[in-house]
């Protein structure tokens, strides 16, 4: 993402700490983007309509980045989730018996 203004700044997705939001200070709309480490990017004097479009674009870009980041691990995560669910059930068998399905599926 690149923010342009009196000073231009490129921000990587990994630097973003949370979702962007709007606030008003002294009647002026201010767009905030929280950054990792407690910093933030502020855009003041932005029209509400433009700020809403910017927030939507930032959230869409972040979601696409995150989906691409985790898409390769979804199968592994679902297998681990299944194993954790089975481990939460009352113990009738040794825990190692619960991993037999996972070992067979990975071969």
Brief account:
This protein is of the alpha+beta class and 107 residues long. The chain has four helices and five strands; from the N terminus they run βββββαααα.
Structure description:
It is elongated, with a radius of gyration of 22 Å. It has two domains: 2-71, no CATH class; 72-106. The longest helix has 23 residues, at 48-70. The chain has helices at residues 48-70, 74-88, 95-98, 100-106, and strands at residues 2-3, 9-10, 21-25, 28-34, 40-44. By secondary structure, it is an alpha+beta fold. The model has no long low-confidence stretch (mean pLDDT 78). Helices cover 46% and strands 20% of the residues.
Strand content: 15-25%
Give the overall shape, derived from the CA principal axes: elongated
Order of helices and strands: EEEEEHHHH
State the total count of DSSP E strands.
Answer: 5
Discrete helix count: 4
Helicity range: 40-55%
Please mark out the parts with pLDDT under 50 across 5 or more consecutive residues, or reply none. Answer: none
Average pLDDT for all residues: 78
Compute the number of structural domains: 2
Oligomer: single chain
Task: Tell me the structural class.
Answer: alpha+beta
Keywords for this entry:
single chain, 107 residues, alpha+beta, 2 domains, three-stranded antiparallel β-sheet, two-stranded antiparallel ribbon, 20% strand
Tell me the layout of helices and strands.
Layout: E1 2-3, E2 9-10, E3 21-25, E4 28-34, E5 40-44, H1 48-70, H2 74-88, H3 95-98, H4 100-106
Antiparallel strand pairs: 1-2, 3-4, 4-5
């Amino acid at each position: 993402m690149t923010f342009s203004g009196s000073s231009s700044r490129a921000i990587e997705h990994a630097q973003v700490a949370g979702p962007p939001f709007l606030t008003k200070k002294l009647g002026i709309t201010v767009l905030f983007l929280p950054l990792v480490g407690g910093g933030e990017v502020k855009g003041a004097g932005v029209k509400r309509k433009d700020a809403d479009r910017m927030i939507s674009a930032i959230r869409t870009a972040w979601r696409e980045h995150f989906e691409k980041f985790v898409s390769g691990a979804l199968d592994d995560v679902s297998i681990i989730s299944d194993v954790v669910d089975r481990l939460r059930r009352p113990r009738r068998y040794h825990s190692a018996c619960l991993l037999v399905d996972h070992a067979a599926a990975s071969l």
